[in-house]
Task: structure prediction
Amino acid sequence: MEETAEEHQARQEMVRTQIAARGVTDPRVLAVVRALPRHLFVPEGWRHQAYLDTPLPIGEGQTISQPYIVALMTALLELKPTDRVLEIGTGSGYQAAILGMLAGEVTSIERIAAVAAQAEAHLREVGVTNVTVLVQDGTGGYPPRAPYDAILVTAGTPSIPPPLLEQLADHGRLVAPVGGQDLQELVLIRRDGDRYEEYPEGAVRFVPLIGEHGW
Ligand code: SAH
Result:
């Protein structure tokens, strides 16, 4: 895994100034973000910008999310090393790698085959082996591996797809950007039996979730 001293340094700065300074303090989350080389998940031409406070294009009109948002969403999921996790929207595979480093098993669904193939290559390169990438519409979830202790939707949806709520384990956590095509509210849902408690976690901007239970 190639990495220059500058890249290493830039990543430590990113965690300190963009993530910890804004209130994400979970030590396990900060440790994996410090360790994982984000520059390997962005296209060659963008690598010099990999540690900036911004999302970046990854091709096919899709993006790798802003580092702070990745850390925030991950912290909200309160992952345990044995958790089974579902991610909708693999994109670059960066968020999937973070989830894999903190949980037991991750299923990540991406609708664009070329994007999924790139993500799989990135995951191999960084040596994360507990993430399975599937190419399909993820708005229906993935029943064969349900229930999931944590579900993360990384594309903006008009409402939470009902199949995802069904596939969430009791005491499970679900995080999704819910709202319009241009702006969404990051929503945390905790399941307690048949009750789903909802918490607003701030405004965010994601590419649209396109599928049967999305846009
Ligand atoms: N988590 C990613 C960023 C995701 S960008 C990362 O860490 O880089 C959102 C991704 O969701 C895009 O790649 C888009 O193609 C994908 N997507 C949109 N609708 C989808 C759907 N219904 N099912 C699966 N993936 C979807």
